[in-house]
Each structure stands twice: as C-alpha cells, then as structure tokens.
C-alpha cells in the first residue's frame, strides 16, 4: 500500500476515474493536487462561485482519486505529454509527483471494449481480465470500487467515466429492463464496456457520471437499477467547447426570430480522443451528440452538419470553425463565422470536478435517478429536451438556491 500523502486531512470522498491515465483524468488529478498546494487558482470551476459555493460542497482536500485504466504507462508519462503541449505547467507536475505516484498505485486494470481488443498498448492485467465471464468482470470492477472505499474509510465514492469513445451500438432488447440486462450479462451477451462500468458502479453503491458520448448508465435497464439502489447519475458527453458556444449562440438567433439557414461546423483535434475518432464507428457516437443541440434549438429546417478530423500535430488543442448562414428582415442573407481554439482537457477537467461535487451533494441528500439539474454540462443531457445553455444554467442555479441554507 502506498502512503496517502495527498491530503492534509483524511479524505472523505473518493473519485474513481475510468480512463484514469487519459488526458482529462490526468489534467483533473494534477489540477486538484495543484489546487491543494495553492499552486493554481480554481479558474473554470463553477461550483467555486455563488450560488453553488453556499451548498457546503466537498473541499479539494476531501478528495482522493483511484480508477481503472487499460493502457500501459504511468500518470507521469501522461503528464509529460500534457506539459509538452502546454496544458500542464512543468513546475506543477514536479511539485505533485508524490501525489501522482500515490494515485498511479491505486489504478486497477480496466475492462476492454470490443474495439480496443487489438490495441498494442493494453496492459497485460487487462488482457487477463478478458478471459473471465462477463459476470465475473463486473464483479471485479465492483469489488475494486468497494475496496477503494473501504481502504480509505470513505463516506462515498463517485465514479466518473472518462474512457475513450466506444463504437455506437443500437439499442438492444436486453437493455430494456434490469432482469433482461442481468440475463444478458450471465449469458455473456456482448454489452458495451461503458454499461458494464456503470452497472459495477451502481452495484458498488457509487453515483455515476458519464462524461463521454458512450451509453453508460443511460440505457433503460441501468436507469432502473439507479432508481432501485437509490443513487444519482448523469450524462452524457461533456459540453466543453464548440457545442457550449453553439448552445449559447443559437438561442440568440431564435430569440431575435432570425432564420438560421445553415450551421456548418468543422472540428480538428489531435489528442488520443481524436485518434480514436478516426475510427468511423466511434465517430458516429460523437457526431450524434454534437449535432443534436442545434437541431433542438433551431428546428429541423436548419441545415446542420459537424465534421471531425484527427490532426495529430494539434495534440490536445482543438480548433472548431463554424459558419452560420442566416436570414434577416427583407430576406437579407448574412453570416457569422467564428474560430474557437481550446485545450480540450483544460476545458473538461473543471467540469468533472463540478459534476463530482454535485453528484456527491445529490447522493448525500438522498436524491436519486437522473440529475436533470446538470444538463448545462452535457451535449446530450439525460431526460432533458432543453439545449439552450442559458436556460439549462438557470435550472442549475434554481436547484442550488432551493437547497442553499437559508
Ligand atoms: N475533452 C473534452 O473536451 C471532452 C468533451 C466531451 C467528452 N469527452 C470524452 O471524454 C473521454 C476522455 O477524453 P480524453 O481526452 O481524456 O481521452 P484520452 O484518450 O486521453 O483518455 C481516455 C483514456 O481511457 C482509457 N481507456 C480506453 N478504454 C478504456 C476502458 N475500456 N477502460 C478503462 N480505460 C479505458 C485510455 O487508455 C485512455 O487513457 C472521451 O470519451 C471523450 O470523447 C471529452
């Protein structure tokens, strides 16, 4: 066992990261270590400001990380990449090396999704796990989470799904309810890894946050499980960059009764997520969730399209170019064009900490099932037809004000 050097006081909240050495997970972990040491400011963390800071949410010192990962490597090797590309400050990484090593030692072998089976970087323990029955796999994942909670004497663990985008799978009969899903797991019927992770999290008594476009806990059987075990969950697909901008700007056109004829978007990204999106079946998952908000706000008559290309030299920096063709009074046709360049991981990491805190808060209050108040954080929010960012954010503010101490 590695000494717990991360916190000046005993942590009470575990954050279990699926995809624990990925770019977002690494940026999040180093970010929290840096915040604890006073090396960085909490920029971009919405729960640090009013009205959310009145809710008594978990402090950075209260958090300890663990997680599942399928790749070889270490957290510090992920950090080297992020330093090289200007995301993580070099001195922060050096100052937090002890914390990073402690987290690395807590990372357990993850479960492969089908599309990863030929990946040369997969660690041998993950490959060994592949030989088990599906039931034994989910039990192993569940036990890892329970062991983490018990070893650190944690009040609660929140599981955050940050693994690569899976190939899109159409809805299956066996997902319709929990009995059928259990039967499918027992029969070794292929089930997306994200669903098995969500199943394991809920069975371990942990709220589940799905930051990816993967199915996760969104299938009916797992929504049912979350209700039965009375745990909150939220997803899908973090709204960090271009979609955030689109869902903020599109309501303006709608409010002014301007007619948006076409909204054409083009994204270039160069990180591992971008590489996995070079696979057309995975790309479909992402395109579905990126295109939906615009159509929901502007209606189906607007022509919308999102192109995504992998451009390796960009690394974690994503560039989105959008062209909006719209019509005003007298039929005059006009355009808005914008270019957004952002670090995907630096945009995503603070959202994850907000979601962890809100899931923990909801669980502490006995709230369970889908967390509609978190819609503003997602491209495809569960059980929410509203995609207007401002309206979504106002719902979150209203949620917080209702629960803030009077
Ligand atoms: N960065 C953003 O702005 C953003 C926004 C929305 C959604 N997302 C999603 O978040 C996820 C993570 O993004 P990232 O940039 O950190 O990607 P990344 O590729 O850097 O990290 C993913 C990590 O997951 C690991 N992994 C893959 N399959 C796994 C499995 N079955 N079990 C356990 N670990 C597994 C990989 O080895 C890798 O370390 C992606 O699905 C991405 O689509 C990212």
- What is the first-to-last residue Cα distance? 44 Å
Element string (H = helix, E = strand): EHEHHHEHHEHHEHEHEHHEEEHEH
Strand content: 15-25%
Unreliable spans = 1-7
Task: Determine the number of helices (DSSP H or I, runs of at least 4 residues).
Answer: 14
- Going across the major beta sheet, what is the strand order? 3-2-1-4-5-6-11
Spatial shape: globular
Quickly give the structural class. alpha/beta
Estimated radius of gyration? 21 Å
**The level-1 CATH class of the largest domain:** Alpha Beta
CATH architecture of the largest domain: 3-Layer(aba) Sandwich
The number of strands is 11
Described by strand count, sense and barrel closure, the largest sheet is: 7 strands, parallel
Query: What ions, cofactors and ligands are bound?
Result: nicotinamide-adenine-dinucleotide
List keywords for this structure.
406 residues; Rossmann fold; Dihydrodipicolinate Reductase, domain 2; 2 domains; 14 helices; globular; disordered N terminus; binds nicotinamide-adenine-dinucleotide
Structural notes for this entry:
This protein has two domains: 281 residues, Rossmann fold (3-Layer(aba) Sandwich); 102 residues, Dihydrodipicolinate Reductase, domain 2 (2-Layer Sandwich). The N and C termini lie far apart (44 Å). By secondary structure, it is of the alpha/beta class. The N terminus is likely disordered. β5, α9 and β6 form a beta-alpha-beta unit. α1 crosses α13. The protein is globular. It binds nicotinamide-adenine-dinucleotide. Nicotinamide-adenine-dinucleotide binds next to α1, β2, α11 and α13. Nicotinamide-adenine-dinucleotide (NAD) binds next to α1, β2, α11 and α13.
């Amino acid at each position: 066992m590695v000494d717990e050097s991360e916190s000046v006081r005993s942590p009470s909240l575990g954050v279990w990261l699926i995809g624990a050495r990925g770019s977002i997970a690494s940026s999040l972990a180093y970010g929290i270590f840096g915040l604890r040491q006073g090396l960085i400011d909490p920029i971009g963390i919405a729960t640090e400001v009013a009205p959310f800071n009145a809710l008594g949410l978990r402090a950075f010192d209260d958090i300890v990380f663990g997680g599942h990962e399928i790749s070889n490597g270490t957290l510090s090797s992920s950090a080297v990449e992020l330093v090289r590309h200007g995301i993580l400050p070099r001195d922060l990484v050096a100052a937090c090396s002890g914390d990073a090593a402690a987290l690395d030692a807590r990372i357990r072998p993850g479960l492969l999704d089908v599309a990863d089976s030929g990946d040369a970087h997969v660690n041998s323990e993950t490959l060994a796990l592949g030989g088990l029955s599906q039931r034994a796999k989910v039990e192993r994942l569940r036990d890892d989470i329970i062991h983490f909670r018990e070893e650190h004497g944690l009040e609660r663990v929140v599981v955050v799904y940050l693994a690569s985008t899976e190939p899109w799978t159409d809805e299956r009969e066996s997902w319709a309810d929990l009995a059928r899903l259990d039967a499918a797991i027992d029969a070794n019927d292929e089930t997306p890894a994200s669903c098995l992770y969500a199943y394991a999290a809920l069975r371990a008594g942990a709220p589940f946050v799905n930051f990816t476009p993967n199915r996760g806990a969104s299938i009916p059987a797992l929504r049912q499980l979350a209700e039965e075990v009375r745990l909150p969950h939220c997803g899908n697909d973090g709204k960090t960059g271009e979609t955030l901008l689109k869902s903020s700007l599109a309501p303006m056109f709608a409010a002014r009764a301007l007619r948006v004829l076409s909204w054409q978007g083009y994204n270039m990204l160069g990180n591992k997520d971008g590489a996995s999106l070079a696979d057309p079946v995975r790309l479909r998952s992402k395109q579905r969730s990126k295109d939906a908000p615009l159509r929901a706000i502007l209606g189906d008559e607007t022509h919308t399209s999102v192109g995504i290309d992998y451009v390796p030299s960009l690394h974690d920096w994503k560039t989105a170019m959008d062209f909006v063709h719209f019509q005003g009074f007298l039929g005059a046709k006009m355009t808005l064009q914008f270019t957004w360049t952002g670090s995907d991981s630096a945009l995503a990491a603070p959202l994850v900490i907000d979601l962890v805190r809100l899931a923990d808060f909801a669980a502490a209050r006995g709230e369970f099932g889908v967390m509609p108040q978190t819609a503003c954080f997602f491209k495809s929010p569960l059980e929410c037809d509203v995609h207007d960012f401002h309206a979504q954010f106002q719902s979150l503010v209203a949620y917080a004000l209702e629960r803030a101490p009077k």
